[in-house]
Amino acid sequence: MNKPSEKKGFFATLEENPSADTFLRGLWKDNPVFVQVLGMCPVLAVTNTAENALAMGLATAFVMLMSNVLVSSLRRFIPKQVRIASYILIIATFVTITDYAIMAISVELHKSLGAFISLIVVNCLILSRAEAFASKNTIGRSVLDALGMGVGFTFALLCLGVVREVLGNGSIFGLALFPDTFQEWIVMILPAGGFFTLAIWLLLFNIINQKRAAT
Amino acid sequence: MSETLNIPKGATGNSRKMLTAMVGIGLMCALLIVLTYEGTKPIIADNKAEALEQAIFKVLPGTATTAAYTWNGETFVPTEEQTDGGQRVYAGFSESGSLTGFALPAVGQGYAGNIRVLYGYDPEQEAVVGFYVLESKETPGLGDKIEKDPAFLANFEELSVPLNAAGDALKQEIRYVKSGEKQNPWEVDGITGATISSQAVSDALSESTAEWVPKLHQAKNQFQPQTQSDE
């Protein structure tokens, strides 16, 4: 996985530069949501509005960045047998810190995010980055990896959030888009709508990827 | 992840190392959390106090100044400090110094933890005149409609809580009804898709008003603005 030079295909040119590859991998080729299909709980549960999706994506990216840095810098110190427990401890710490920080920034923001924040602890994406990447790579590469994955995750969440909010609520980032006659698709902001939207995005993503692979 | 089971046979020799690592990381994490907690505590307290102040003005229309009171078992006494014990009551006064009503916090058990709300009670109208959610962990998009749904919030613009003839209890407690079935001024119209959350709010208000409205009504003349002007 960490030997980009052996890979061949469309992204070959980018892969010649390891740093750019580490970053871009999370954006598209290994997109956490559309390719790895990881962290489905927040993807399905909190993307009912674009604003929630964006906030959740950024908070997750921050936790992932900080935990990747710490896991990477402690990778020689943590014994193999207790590494998962250590990672969880580190992730939970940064989630708690994020929680306090958001509360200090704005009570209103914390109110609208409330329940999401503590759920970041159980996002398997963050644990998978700590286990699969940060524990085997230098701090610099881990930062790039976390940034790429974080941006990719935020992007994917926004893709779902925008579609669901437009169809389910007739608005985008809280601004009404349609005249009052628009009949909202209530199902889109319910959990079922999350599955529908995710399926359509996965379909699109796979079609695009297949076409690219064919050329 | 399959490597997880790859524990070497002589693992006992590593216990000290594992213990050191876990304790070390635990201590470091604890330190980080404590530092963040201590660092953000005053800011958070300020933010919350400000949010509460804003909320009082929202639930009591026409309020210019507020004063905090706590119930000491027999009567309401003015308080300044943020104490935890006892029910707090915030009296609101208009610019001319007349009582605009009381703001009371109430707590209900929602779908995901406690819902803390603040509501305004106007003794003149004998009604709940305002409502604001201070803290909730309700599901975004569903349960959090209790904060946003205009039809639901309209319930609390004038929710009747009349006293009985003796003045020591409510004639009619606040009652929860399904969405669209509201017929009486003391009923709360629920939200479809957020039944548990909206019922929790209704129950919290029902319980709190039943206990405090009679007491407030009896004591309403003892509340004076901290400046002079007496009516």
What's the quick description here?
Helix content of chain A is 68%, strand content 2%. By secondary structure, chain A is mostly helical. In chain B, strand 4 and strand 5 (113-122) form a beta hairpin.
Number of strands of chain A: 2
Please give the number of β-strands of chain B: 9
Q: In this structure, how is the largest beta sheet of chain A organized?
A: 2 strands, antiparallel
Q: How would you describe the oligomerization state of the chains in this entry? A: heterodimer
Overall tally of domains of chain A: 1
Spatial shape of chain A: globular
Question: Unreliable segments of chain A (pLDDT under 50, ≥5 consecutive)?
Answer: 1-8
Strand numbers in spatial order across the main sheet of chain A: 1-2
Mean pLDDT across the residues of chain B is 79
How confident overall, as mean pLDDT of chain A? Answer: 83
The N- and C-terminal alpha carbons of chain B lie at a distance of 75 Å
Order of helices and strands of chain A: HHHHHHHHHEEHH
What key phrases describe this protein's structure?
heterodimer, A: 215 residues, mainly alpha, B: 231 residues, alpha+beta, 7-stranded antiparallel β-sheet, 4 helices, disordered C terminus
Describe the structure in your own words.
The complex is a heterodimer of chains A (215) and B (231). Chain A is an all-alpha fold and 215 residues long. Chain A is 68% helix and 2% strand. Chain A has eleven helices and two strands, in the order αααααααααββαα. Chain A has helices at 12-15, 18-27, 40-45, 50-73, 83-105, 107-113, 115-119, 124-132, 139-169, 186-189, 191-214, and strands at 171-172, 175-176. A two-stranded antiparallel sheet of chain A has the order 1-2. In chain A, helix 4 (50-73) packs across helix 5, helix 4 (50-73) runs parallel beside helix 8 and helix 9 (139-169) crosses helix 11 (191-214). The longest helix of chain A is centred in the C-terminal third of the chain and has 31 residues, at 139-169. Chain A starts with 11 loop residues before the first helix and ends with a helix. Mean pLDDT of chain A is 83; it is low at 1-8. Chain B has 231 residues and is an alpha+beta fold. Chain B has one domain. The chains are: A mainly alpha (215), B alpha+beta (231). The A-B interface holds A 46, 48-49, 52, 74, 77-82, 84-86, 89-90, 92-93, 96-97, 100-101, 103-104, 106-108, 111-112, 114-116, 131, 186, 189-190 and B 1, 3-4, 6-7, 11, 14, 17-18, 21-22, 24-26, 29, 32-33, 36-37, 40, 43-44, 47-48, 50-51, 112, 133, 135-142, 144, 147, 193.
